[in-house]
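Homework help board

Subject: predicted structure for assignment chain

Our instructor gave us this sequence and asked us to write out the predicted structure in token form, then describe one feature. I got the tokens but I'm not sure how to describe them. Can anyone check?
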Amino acid sequence: MNGDNINELKRISTDINDTGTDKTMVLDSIYISASASPEGLYPNNYKLAEKRHEAVLALLDLIFDCHQPASETESKATTKSGNNPRETRHVQITSDIIGENWNTLEELISADNNISVTQKLDFIEICEIANPDERERVLSSRPYYKYISDIIYPKLRASEIKIFYHTKNRK
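My token output:
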């Protein structure tokens, strides 16, 4: 989700509810990922990502009658079908909690034209450090860190929701 969370949630709710009245499409699963930036200690960032994850699940619970997760990353949800109010749809919800999203950070830095090739190579070398807190400490000592912290890190502090559909005639 982006910074305009209320409008984004309204859009998601509308998309989900519209499948109940759609004659051709069926909602079959939802995938959620929640992440944090590497700024700060890894355990704290993981907790932030967990809170984002829990917030999205709570919001989906407003749309669905969600049940306890079958595992930490799976749950089933049901909602009334718009075609028949007595009919319910079962929707699988899977999710990932990404404490510090280093993979996306690497993609964003690689694609950023404001970061020089030399800085990108330096960043790749820093990513070889196994301990994420030490990796972030070394990164924070670089002159280009302020740009990364101000411009790129906010993009990592996010939840992503993917909604999957199939055609009604598909078995």
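Reply (TA_rk): Your tokens look well-formed. For the description, you could write something like this. The CA atoms of residues 37 and 155 lie 8 Å apart. That's the kind of observation they're looking for.
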